[in-house]
């Protein structure tokens, strides 16, 4: 079941594992996310996602930069 904007929880965090080690320039495109320790050849970004629209926007940014999302998960509270 999909969440609408009105039923989105007040504080949701996601983790995105991206293929490759991202440069500082690419990381700058995601100021709302922080980098966390990840195995070599991957980059893991985590941060708050305020709405379904914001989540789609992040995924669109990954795509527009040619990044491959290996894993995406909602983090526990």
Compute the separation of the termini in Å: 20 Å
Low-confidence regions: none
| Helix-strand sequence | EHEEHE
Order of the strands making up the biggest sheet: 2-3-1-4
What is the domain total for the residues? 1
- Which sheet architecture does the biggest sheet show? 4 strands, antiparallel
Instruction: Name the overall outline.
Output: globular
- Protein structure class: alpha+beta
How many β-strands, per DSSP?
4
Q: Fraction of residues in helices?
A: 10-25%
Overall pLDDT, averaged?
A: 91
Strand content: 25-35%
Number of DSSP helical runs: 2
Supply Rg. 13 Å
Describe the structure.
With 77 residues, this protein is an alpha+beta fold. It has one domain. The chain contains two helices and four strands; from the N terminus they run E-H-E-E-H-E. The chain has a four-stranded antiparallel beta sheet with strand order 2-3-1-4, with no helix packed on it. Strand 2 and strand 3 form a beta hairpin.
